């Protein structure tokens, strides 16, 4: 299994990655950990990365792409891996695509842990307190000031990856605001669906959607599903109203479409609504033509009698 974990600092990527490692026997490849090790060992990469990391910036793409491509080559990654903290930019994601393709490997899913930003500072503070309690060295970038810079870097450079993987139908979104155990369960459930469907070559998003239909993971997704369902109901209403207000019907369809914008089911619903209206218009036109013909015949008969 090959996965990407996406989410802002403090979303719980590291914690969930460790659980996935234990469950699936794959390795966690954290560029943050690798870079911290390089900084500690004062290697060439470490010297390049040290100040950037301490300031909450992003290490240049070519540096992280280099370390990841070397790491993926290692035999322990042969059984699969979870990329934690990589890719963080679109060029890194593109480089990963090329890298995997060149090795004939496939990415199973990009798992996004979606969290409220307001909770992140508290989470990072908890992490620092736990590290201190364990007697571990605290990360230089785990301070409120640097966290806000790391968040800004996430928003500007990493968030576009949500669309990137969504377009590739690899994205699955998990509500990261649940408890750690609940998030783990949800990831397991969604991944089971992805792996199950990967045999029938269904994209990750489709499988995850199927899983979401059973139990929706993220509140945002729940709202989306709800509005898509509502939109799908719109044509039924339109059909009942017949042709009395085709404009109104079209409006209802398009209103439904704008509510759940890109969802396929909405597009389908709008199409169906338009079809229903078209059909009804045809029916009425036919009836009108019949009635006209009948009255013309009647008139002709009357005139003939006169
Ligand atoms: P993390 O442990 O994932 O939060 O990463 C800690 C820091 O390492 C980040 O704030 C960046 O400075 C750097 N870093 C880790 N991964 C990457 C990456 N893929 N691209 C650029 N910088 C990275």
Report on this structure.
With 306 residues, the protein is an alpha/beta fold. It has a domain at 2-177: P-loop containing nucleotide triphosphate hydrolases (Rossmann fold, 3-Layer(aba) Sandwich). It is 68% helix and 8% strand. It has 13 helices and 5 strands. Strands 2-3-1-4-5 form a 5-stranded parallel sheet, sandwiched between helices. The longest helix is centred in the last third of the chain and has 42 residues, at 264-305. The radius of gyration is 28 Å and the shape is globular. The protein starts with a strand and ends with a helix. The model is unreliable at 214-267 (pLDDT under 50). Adenosine monophosphate (AMP) is lined by residues 9, 31-32, 35, 52-53, 56-59, 64, 85-86, 88, 92, 141, 150.
